[in-house]
Amino acid sequence: MSIDYNEKGKIFTEVETKLPVFATIQTTTHRLRGQVHIRRDQRVIDALDRDEPFLAITQATVFATDGSALYEAPFIAVQRANIVWVMPEANPNGEIS
Question: What does the alpha-carbon distance between residue 4 and residue 9 come to, in Å, rounded to a whole number?
Answer without folding.
Answer: 9
